[in-house]
Amino acid sequence: MRLFEGDTLLIATHNLGKLAEFEALLAPFGITCKSNRDFGLAEPEETEKTFVGNARIKAAAAVKATGLPALADDSGIEIDALGGAPGVHTADWAETGQGRDFRIAMTRAWDELEAINAAEPRTARFRATLVLLWPDAYEEVFEGSVEGHVVWPMRGETGHGYDPIFKPVGYNRTFGEMSADEKNKLSHRARALEKLAACLPSQRLSQ
Predict the structure, then answer these.
(1) Which residues are catalytic?
(2) Claim: this prediction has a pTM higher than 0.85
């Protein structure tokens, strides 16, 4: 496994919610996060059918444009009663033509569950796949997931994406009702980043 030895990492995303999570999770390692927005990068088309495939597309586009190592994330919610949908199309369900509206996406997910009279509990999971890519094409891949249930109505104003309808197993609150610190201790992205930590020099950890 190759160590990441820099102190600034390009996070290949335009999603400010994801960027905030990465900033909080990587701060203890003394790493400053930059995003695609900082470099004026376009968002590449995600054409793969897997999380790792789409993460590679985003990482490769960022590395090619900047010559810097890049960390890309592809993540989503898989709802069992919907055959794992929306999965890699998690963000697509929120597209409106004027940007993303995740209230529309969450409503669609619930309406589809209601349409098939899905049994309770309506099990689901958040999955995250991270690809850390260097300019010489070397990569490391890290995956994390968290199990839970889809609930209704939407609950909470924190987080982003489908957080207000996802209640992790063992908790009575949705991700949308948790503080950033609470969510970052158990989220799918946090679990993937725990594995990524093996690439980060431990001596840089904040005391």
Answers:
(1) 74
(2) yes
